[in-house]
From TrEMBL:
3-hydroxyacyl-CoA dehydrogenase NAD binding domain boundaries: 2-181
Ranges of residues in domain 3-hydroxyacyl-CoA dehydrogenase C-terminal: 184-280
BP GO terms, sorted: fatty acid metabolic process
Protein name per its UniProtKB record: 3-hydroxybutyryl-CoA dehydrogenase
The organism's taxonomic lineage, starting at the top: Bacteria, Pseudomonadati, Bacteroidota, Cytophagia, Cytophagales
Length: 295
């Protein structure tokens, strides 16, 4: 099966990497050629890391890269695809427009999947003429490492498409878990309120950044504290998901913390902007609390 992946950011290049590594011919699509070049560089570095760990041979790396082709044209990139995975920015209107275009350009029998972490698959499917072929494939970051794929059935998604996507996920060495289409699905419906509560605890002065993360790492066996994880995900993404939960479920417990809102408005988005709850310096792995939150 030929696979097309839309979006060459962190999630898109990870999804393309995994499909190509497992024998699929992959078209990686982005409107920005420099972004595609960066994505291919990232994939190459990640493959080199796998080779260094003896998880992959040099021949496997070469074969994987040989299965990847980049496109700046959506129409050209999805021609002949049996599966399209959209991994664009978590923006409702952008995703809806992509799926309108996919419905026009992708083969009639192609499965159209979204890597959305919270947006309704039913809503996305409704802008197409093939809602039974639209499904969610929510990969976890970093995609080459994380085993879970949250498979989300929209209201009209067929059993056949769901079963095929579950099987494809297993072919990638992943563990697919089927969930129904409600705001936040399972992963983010549970994760985002925890992150939001950690931010509220900081906002209300219950404890500092490092202290909150230490409690969760050492007390709850989390590999990463919630504030560091929020930085890693992107505070703008966390805010967008919380707003989907708040609006979609109508429950005030999902209302985003004012501190999170202010940080996003100020451009403090976490690791990708260089500062969130922690400060990030290129080439350094040291975890340094942002100056604003030092006690």
């Amino acid at each position: 099966m030929n696979v097309a992946v839309i979006g060459s950011g962190t999630m898109g290049n990870g999804i393309a990497h995994v499909f190509a590594q497992h024998g699929f011919t992959v078209a990686l699509i982005d409107i920005n050629q420099p972004a595609l070049d960066r994505a291919m560089g990232t994939i190459t570095k990640n493959l080199d890391r796998q080779v260094a760990k003896a998880a992959l041979s040099e021949d496997d790396k070469t074969a994987t890269l040989g299965r990847l082709t980049t496109f700046t044209s959506l129409e050209e990139g999805v021609a002949g695809a049996g599966l399209v995975v959209e991994a664009a920015t978590e923006n409702v209107e952008l995703k809806l427009q992509i799926f309108r275009d996919l419905d026009q350009y992708a083969p009639a029998d192609a499965i159209l999947a979204s890597n959305t972490s919270s947006i309704s698959i039913t809503k996305i499917a409704a802008v197409t003429k093939r809602p039974q072929q639209v499904i969610g494939m929510h990969f976890m970051n970093p995609v080459p490492v994380m085993k879970l794929v949250e498979v989300i059935r929209g209201y009209a998604t067929s059993d056949a498409v769901t079963n095929q996507v579950m099987d494809l996920s297993r072919q990638l060495g992943k563990t697919p878990t089927e969930v129904n289409d409600y705001p936040g699905f399972v992963a983010n419906r549970i994760l985002m309120p925890m992150i939001n509560e950690a931010i509220i605890s900081l906002f209300e002065g219950v404890a500092g950044v490092e202290e909150i993360d230490t409690v969760m790492k050492l007390g709850m066996a989390h590999p990463m504290g919630p504030l560091q994880l929020a930085d890693f995900i992107g505070l703008d993404v966390c805010l967008a998901i919380l707003r989907v939960l708040h609006e979609g479920l109508g429950n005030p417990k999902y209302a985003p913390c004012p501190l999170l809102v202010n940080m996003v408005m100020a451009g403090r988005l976490g690791a990708k902007s260089g500062e969130g709850f922690y400060q990030y310096t290129a080439g350094s792995k040291e975890l340094v609390v942002a100056e604003r939150f030092r006690r």
